[in-house]
Amino acid sequence: LVDRDLYEKRRDLIYTGRTLFGIMPPKGQELSDHYFGTIKQRVSDYMKDLDKTLWELGIPSKTKHNEVAPSQHESAPVFESANLAADHNQLTMELMQKIAKKHGYVALLHEKPFEGINGSGKHDNWSLSTDTGLNLLEPGSSPIENAQFLTFLAAVVAAVDEYSDLLRLSVASAGNDHRLGANEAPPAVVSVFLGEELTDVIDALINDREVRDLHQQFDVGVTALPKFAKDTTDRNRTSPFAFTGNKFEFRMVGSNLNITGPNIILNTIVAETLSRIADRLEEIIASGEKSLREPLRKILVETFTAHKNILFNGNGYDNEWINEASKRGLLNLPGTADSVPYFKLDKNVEVFVKHKVFSKTEILSRLDITLDTYCKAINIEALTAIDIAQKEILPAAFKFQKQLYELLITKKAAGFEELDVVNKKSGEIEQLAYDRSFATYVDGVVRDIVSSIANIKKSLNSFDNTTDLEQVAYRYQNKILPSINDLREKVDALEAVTPKELWPVPTYGELLFSVK
Description:
- 53% of the residues lie in helices and 5% in strands.
- By secondary structure, it is mainly alpha-helical.
- It has a four-stranded mixed sheet.
- The radius of gyration is 28 Å and the shape is elongated.
- About 4% of the residues have low confidence.
C-alpha cells in the first residue's frame, strides 16, 4: 500500500506498476519491525472494509497481517474448491485496488514494485480430494490410507519432476522475473520439499529399511506411517513446491497472476502420472494377481527412485544448490524468454492434447500471447524510463549543476581556491569532496544518464522486422532490460547526492514509510 497522492507523482508506478528508479532509504526491512509490529490503524480500517466487502460476496477472507517489507501486507482466504478459489482470487485483487482508493491508498499488485526489499507473491495451496471430500494427500494412520497417500504423493513428485518446465512457465511474467530467486521468493529452479520425516519414509521404501525412529518394518499396506501434524514441515520458505501436512504449496506464483494457469498445469500433469500408475495396476489386476500390495510397492519404489532428484529440503537461496541442481539435471530458467518456449515441446503438447485440455493450436496461441505481453511490458518500461529521465530527472540535474557552478563562481570571486590533493605515490588527484571535484562528479553522472538514454533508444531502434516472438522476447530480456537497469544505476547515483528539494519524484523513504 502506498499513499495515492505520492503514487500519482510517480509515473513509473502508474505506467508499469513498479519503480524504475529509486535508492533505498537508510532504514528498510532489516529490523523486521514492520513484520512483527501491529497493523497501523489506517491499514486496519482498510482491511476491515475489504473483509466486509469480501464476506458480502461469499469470499471467505480470514487472515490478515503485516508482511516483511515496509507497507507490505498479506491477506488469505479459507481453502475452497479450485474453480471457486480462482474466481474469488480475481475478485479479491480487484476489490483490493478499488477499496484502497477509498482509503487514500493505492494497492500495488506488481511482484517487485521496489528494488531492494521483498517482492510480493501468492501461495497456491493445492490438494486433491474425492467427490465426498476425502483428502487424497492426507497421510492418514491406517495401512490402506498410507498406501493411498503414497500413491498420490508419488504421482505428484513424478509430475513435478517430469514437467518442471511447465510449472516454471506457468508463473512466468515480466514482474515475477524480478522476484524469483531474489532471496525473498523461491528460486527459478523447481524442486519439491517433503520435510525430513517424509523424505526418510521414501528413502526407507526405496532401500527396504526401517523408517528412522520407528520400531516396525515399513511396508506399504501393512505398517502405518508416522503421524504428520499439519503445517509442521513447511517452514522452508525457499522451496518452490512444498508438502505442508496434507497439501502442496506452490510458492512461485506472482502476486499479479491469475492462479488458473498454474492450477490447470498442476491438474493436467498429475492426471497424466496418475493415469500411468492406474494403467499399470489395471494390467496387474487383469493378469489375475490377487494382492496389489507388492506390485504397488514395486511401482512406488520405481517412481520415487526415478524422480528423487527433484526432492530437496535445503536452502534454495544458496548458490551451491543452483550448482547441485544443474548436476542433477534440473532446469534453471531465470526469465520469461527462457521458459515460455518450453510450452511447445512435444512431450508438453502431448500431455495437454491427450487429456483434452488444450489443442496444439491453443498452446501455440497462449505461447505467443505470453511472449507478446512480456515484450510489451518491457517496451513500456523502457519508454517510461526514457520519458522520466528526460523530462524530470535531467531538468532537476541541470538545476543542481547550476547551483554548483554558481557556488564555484562565487567562491572564486571571494578569493577561495579549490584544493586538489595529489597522492604522492600515484601522482593522481584524489577526488575529495571539494567543490570542484564534486561538481565534476555530478557532471559525469549527468553525462552517463544522457549516454544511457541514448543506448536504450539505440537498442529499441535496432529491432528488425522479425516476426519470431521468441527472438524478440530474448532481445527484450537480454538487451533492453539490462539497458534499463544501467540507466537506473546512473539515475540512482544522482539521487544519492541531489538535495531533497530538487529531486522531482517521491523517494523510496516517502513511498515506503508514508503508510500511517
